[in-house]
């Protein structure tokens, strides 16, 4: 017994030793039998891209491609305009990009069909009729139902939070609930837009008006999608400006009775046919492995959708254009996807994920730029610690333009499906506060875009996607 245990222990030791041996030699073995490089080797490999990174930066920022993504975007949004899910404009935009990617000489350019929501706001208005007449600036929220033709006329109840609404629920019955929630961050505050109507309806309200989710305001309403619940009555809902929300809050705190007439013609049509738009540079060595760069082509129906997400879509296209201009072909496939139906909850991206997740082990990294293309400050990244260390090295290649930071929480609505399943995700970080000045408002026009800032964003996006696509090994998960 004793003896056998001892020899067993010896055997165990030997097995453990054999397993550790490759690591002791600095060569941990990967699952598929190839040897994984040590971090030092990866670091050297990445440093070897210095000249290519420099060439990308020179071309994008100072060379022949200077301002190209900006000029392409301006032509696109000025001729097509905003691109609401289900609209003719969005159809036109997809056809336009399908042609443009083919003309640019990208490979495997194709459209992948997907059904997307089709909601239209129609005519809409809100008038404060007591204690004085005042026209409120509104934008109906996506998915809202209409009011009767004569509108809904009711007294308002102003609350600053869901907690206050719940505490004052008996007062809400038959009223229009006005949310004057403070802006904390988009992520925290957006629940008032997406859930505000449901919460107000639970308390018996007849409509809800939500202070726009915006970091700054010059009386502009900011729209966005909102969700009903099947077990709660549907009430019309719109966003109002920060200024009007604060004014009505001040007035009601003085005990004034405020009455509003809200008219909305909003209508939901059957789901529309649409497409995700795809183009590639096929990998030379591992063509089945994919680095995905993306932005969404749809937008809200206000402004021009130049920032959200024209900028992100066009620097993603620019990444493939720059690689082509330089005559480069990475080992892995660089795949550009321009999503449809993002604003309605990542509808195109969800279908793409469902259809392609069978190949998830071949997705190296998923990248989406959907938080502005202003002066870039770095890359936001989600992935393992090992992958993060690699990304830090890759970002060192951007020293010449001083954009080297790696932040937490990379991803975006359209790529989070993959990130949740463990695929590393990245997004471009810039001045996010500025982004929410214009987001989903009539202020989202070409005027907020800057050619030099877009050049820098394109350089970051291109260096990162190219180097990851060309490295010998995929990012560790
Ligand atoms: C790019 O835009 C900047 C800023 O508007 C301008 O100064 C520069 O001349 C432009 N470059 C080209 C090649 O058009
Ligand atoms: C999965 O990858 C293989 C190899 O690249 C490809 O032929 C196939 O079409 C892919 N399947 C899907 C559903 O994307
Ligand atoms: C480089 O970027 C950092 C961080 O954004 C900033 O603090 C620094 O001033 C920049 N340096 C130059 C030379 O622009
Ligand atoms: Zn967006």
Overall pLDDT level: 94
Q: Per DSSP, what share of the residues sits in E-state strands of 2 or more residues?
A: 15-25%
Number of strands: 16
Secondary structure tally, helices: 16
Q: How are the strands ordered across the major sheet?
A: 1-10-12-11-13-16-14-15
- Which percent range fits the helix content? 25-40%
The shape is elongated
CATH architecture of the largest domain: 3-Layer(aba) Sandwich
Please summarize the sheet with the most strands. Answer: 8 strands, mixed
How many discrete domains? 2
By secondary-structure content and strand pairing, the structural class works out as alpha/beta
CATH topology of the largest domain: Aminopeptidase
Assembly context of the chains: single chain
Rg (C-alpha, Å): 26 Å
Full CATH superfamily name of the largest domain: Zn peptidases
End-to-end gap: 44 Å
- Say which molecules are bound, naming each kind only once: 2-acetamido-2-deoxy-beta-D-glucopyranose, zinc ion
CATH class of the largest domain: Alpha Beta
């Amino acid at each position: 017994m004793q003896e056998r245990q001892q020899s067993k222990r010896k055997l165990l030791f030997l097995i453990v030793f054999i397993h550790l041996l490759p690591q002791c030699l600095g060569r941990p073995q990967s699952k598929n039998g190839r040897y994984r490089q040590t971090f030092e080797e990866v670091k050297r490999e990445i440093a070897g891209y210095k000249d290519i990174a420099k060439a990308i930066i020179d071309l994008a920022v100072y060379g022949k491609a200077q301002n190209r993504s900006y000029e392409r975007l301006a032509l696109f949004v000025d001729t097509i305009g905003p691109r609401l899910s289900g609209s003719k404009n969005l159809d036109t935009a997809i056809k336009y990009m399908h042609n443009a990617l083919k003309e640019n000489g990208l490979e495997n350019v194709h459209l992948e069909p997907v059904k997307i929501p089709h909601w239209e706001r129609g005519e809409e208005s809100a008038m404060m009729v007591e204690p004085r007449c005042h026209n409120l600036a509104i934008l109906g929220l996506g998915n809202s139902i209409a009011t009767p033709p004569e509108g809904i006329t009711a007294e308002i109840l102003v609350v600053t939070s869901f907690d206050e609404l719940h505490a004052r629920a008996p007062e809400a019955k038959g009223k229009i609930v006005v949310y004057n929630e403070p802006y904390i961050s988009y992520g925290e505050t957006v629940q008032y837009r997406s859930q505000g109507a449901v919460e107000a309806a639970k308390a018996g309200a007849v409509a809800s008006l939500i202070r726009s989710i915006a970091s700054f305001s010059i009386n502009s309403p900011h729209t966005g999608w909102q969700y009903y619940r099947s077990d709660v009555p549907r009430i019309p809902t719109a966003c109002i400006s920060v200024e009007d929300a604060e004014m009505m809050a001040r007035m009601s705190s003085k005990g004034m009775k405020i009455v509003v007439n809200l008219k909305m013609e909003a209508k939901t049509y059957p789901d529309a046919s649409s497409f995700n738009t795809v183009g590639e540079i096929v990998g030379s060595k591992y063509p089945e492995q994919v680095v995905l760069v993306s932005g969404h082509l749809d937008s809200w129906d206000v402004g021009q959708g130049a920032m959200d997400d024209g900028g992100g879509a066009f620097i993603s296209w620019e990444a493939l254009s720059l690689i082509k201009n330089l005559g480069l072909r990475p080992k892995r496939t660089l795949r550009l996807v321009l999503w449809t139906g993002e604003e309605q909850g990542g509808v195109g991206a969800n279908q793409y994920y469902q259809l392609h997740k069978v190949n998830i082990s071949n997705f190296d990294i998923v990248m989406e730029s959907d938080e502005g293309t202003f002066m870039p400050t770095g890359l936001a990244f989600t992935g393992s610690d090992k992958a993060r260390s690699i990304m830090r090295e890759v970002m060192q290649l951007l020293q010449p333009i001083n954009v080297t930071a790696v932040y937490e929480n990379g991803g975006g609505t359209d790529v989070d499906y993959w990130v949740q399943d463990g695929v590393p995700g990245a997004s471009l970080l810039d001045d996010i506060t500025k982004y929410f000045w214009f987001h989903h408002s009539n202020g989202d026009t070409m005027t907020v875009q800057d050619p030099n800032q877009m050049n820098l964003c394109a350089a970051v996006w291109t260096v990162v996607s190219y180097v990851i696509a060309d490295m010998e090994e995929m990012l560790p998960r």
